[in-house]
């Protein structure tokens, strides 16, 4: 027991020594903490003083800003009131101007309505007059159409009568022309027969150059064209019968046209006038027994080879007259 008590005492002394050491350390730490606390307290007091000073400065600035704000509010309020007053005045002016424009517009509208009414009445009067004129024009057109129809009937009747008369006259003239051609050809044949029989007196009796001219003058009368009479035909100019002049060669006969009408065949004797006159001249030269010497040009060459004989001219004339006679008969059919 004593031993345990001694051990406990030793342990207690050890623990007490430890506690005393720890206590001294704690006291030192406490002293340090108190010292730090005091330092912090002092520093905090200084900071608090500075903060209080700053707070006072801020409060002064806030008060100044409040004064400035009040002043700005007053100025802005005054400015707003001024602008509102100006806007009211402008609205009043615009209202008066709008009222005056509305009155002016109403006056113009009334004037336009008056003008429109006048124009409407004028148009109604013009329409009424136009309707009356159109009705009169329609009646006049109907009367004119009736007159035109009557005139057309009359013109048609006159044209029918005139066509009937003209066709009879054309047929008579065609018959006369055909008979003249036939008699002319018969005279030529009789003349050839007399020449073959060597009877100049008989040849002169049945067919002579003067008879050829007479037949040509009779053949020159053709069917009258519209707008011209048969008296307006120009007769061929006579050619002097010069025994010393060489006989003229007629041009080659034109090719017969298959679509030849009575009017073209009626005017065909005029195409043969120059050929018949050439034949008359050559026959006259042959009857008198004169023979023209062949003429020579500047080079001395003879031109007699280019001149046809009277027999060739006569045969060409007969063939052309026969063709014309055939054309006339075909046209009459």
TrEMBL record:
Bias (Pro residues): 237-258
Coiled-coil ranges per UniProt: 41-122
Comp. bias regions, Low complexity: 259-269
Superkingdom field: Eukaryota
The keyword Glycoprotein belongs to this UniProt entry's keyword annotation: no
Compositionally biased residues, Polar residues: 207-223, 281-304
Biased composition (Basic and acidic residues): 1-13
Region (Disordered): 1-25, 207-315
Keyword terms: Coiled coil
Keyword Coiled coil attributed: yes
Identification of the protein by name: Uncharacterized protein
């Amino acid at each position: 027991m004593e031993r345990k008590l001694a051990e406990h005492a030793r342990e207690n002394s050890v623990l007490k020594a430890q506690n005393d050491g720890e206590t001294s350390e704690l006291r030192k730490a406490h002293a340090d903490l108190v010292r730090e606390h005091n330092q912090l307290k002092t520093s905090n007091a200084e900071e608090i003083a500075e903060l209080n000073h700053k707070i006072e400065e801020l409060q002064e600035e806030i008060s100044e800003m409040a004064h400035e704000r009040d002043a700005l509010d007053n100025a802005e309020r005054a400015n707003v009131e001024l602008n509102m007053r100006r806007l009211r005045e402008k609205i009043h002016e615009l209202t008066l101007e709008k009222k005056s424009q509305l009155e002016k517009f109403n006056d113009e509208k009334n004037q336009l309505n008056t003008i429109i009414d006048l124009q409407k009445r004028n148009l109604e009067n013009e329409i009424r007059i136009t309707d009356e004129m159109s009705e009169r024009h329609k009646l006049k057109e109907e009367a004119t159409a009736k007159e035109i129809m009557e005139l057309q009937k009359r013109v048609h009747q006159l044209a029918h009568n005139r066509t009937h008369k003209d066709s009879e006259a054309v047929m008579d003239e065609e018959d006369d022309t055909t008979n003249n051609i036939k008699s002319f050809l018969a005279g030529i044949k009789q003349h050839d027969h007399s020449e073959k029989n060597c009877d100049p007196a008989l040849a002169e009796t049945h067919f002579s150059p003067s008879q050829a001219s007479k037949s040509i003058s009779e053949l020159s009368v053709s069917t009258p064209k519209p707008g011209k009479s048969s008296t307006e035909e120009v007769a061929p100019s006579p050619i002097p019968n010069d025994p010393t002049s060489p006989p003229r060669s007629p041009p080659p006969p034109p090719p017969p046209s298959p679509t030849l009408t009575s009017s073209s065949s009626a005017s065909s004797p005029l195409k043969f006038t120059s050929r018949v006159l050439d034949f008359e001249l050559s026959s006259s030269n042959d009857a008198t027994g004169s023979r023209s010497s062949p003429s020579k040009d500047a080079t001395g060459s003879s031109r007699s080879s280019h001149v046809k004989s009277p027999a060739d001219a006569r045969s060409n004339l007969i063939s052309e007259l026969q063709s014309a006679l055939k054309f006339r008969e075909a046209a009459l059919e």
